[in-house]
Amino acid sequence: MKKENILVVALILMAVAGVLIYNFSKTPEENVSAAVTPEPSQGKGTGIAWHSYGSGLAAAKSKGKNVFLYFHAPWCTYCTKLKKYTFTDKKVQALMDEHFVSISVDTDQNQALAQEWKVKGLPTMWFLEPDGSKISNIPGYIEADQMVRILEYIRTKSYETMSFHDFVRKS
Which candidate, 35, 41, 49, 122, has a CA 20 to 30 Å from the CA of 103? Predict the structure, then answer.
């Protein structure tokens, strides 16, 4: 792995750690309940156009789009929070539908795929090149404004020339 990619992963992990520390400092009333919510929607007009793993990888390759690979489970509190807040954000939806092929994987229903991707905690999100090669991953909850920055960073392929920290500072 290139030194730049390792740095990008480290910076993203530091950002995620900051978000997690912020979220764990909230009172229980401020946290989202762990109620089960419907799975991410399929199709346009209803939010993000989610694909299954196989069809999503094939679509990314044929369209030349990067992949957003999302591992989740119905019982996961932060997965529910991502669906409720981050994935309903209009900017996030627009960026994901225009520039990415979004793949949703329920780890309860597809444990083998979660093991193949070495998913240790939920939610886990991966960014992939159109050919399926790995760019980077992000564990945990990400707020919408931070997700927009990350999506722009990946969309513009800025990870090839600068760290995420430099990208944010430049923006």
Answer: 35
